[in-house]
Amino acid sequence: MSVALRKWLVFLLLCGLSLTFLFPIIWSFSTSLKSLDQVFEFPPKLWINDAKWENYPRALTRLPFFRFIGNSLILSICTTSGQVLTASMVGFAFARLRWPGRDAWFVVLMLTMMLPGQVLLIPQYLLFHWLGWVNTYKPLIVPGWLGGGAFFIFLFRQFFRGIPRELEDAARIDGATTWQIYWRIFLPNCKPVIATVAILAFIANWKDFMGPLIYLSDFNSCPISLGLRMYQAIEGAWVNYLMAASLVALSPLVLLFFFAQRYFIGGLLLSGSKS
Amino acid sequence: MMWLWIFQPQFGLLNTILRASADRLVGIGLMAPGWAPPAWLNDPAWSKPAMILMNVWTAGGSMLIFLAALQNVPPALYEAAEIDGATRIRQFFHVTIPQISPAIFFNLVIGIIGSLQVFNEAYLMTGGGPRDSTLFYVLYLYQKGFADFEFGYASALAWILFAVICGFTAMIVRSSALWVYYEGDQP
Question: In the CATH hierarchy, which fold is given to the domain comprising B48-185?
Answer without folding.
Answer: MetI-like fold (1.10.3720)
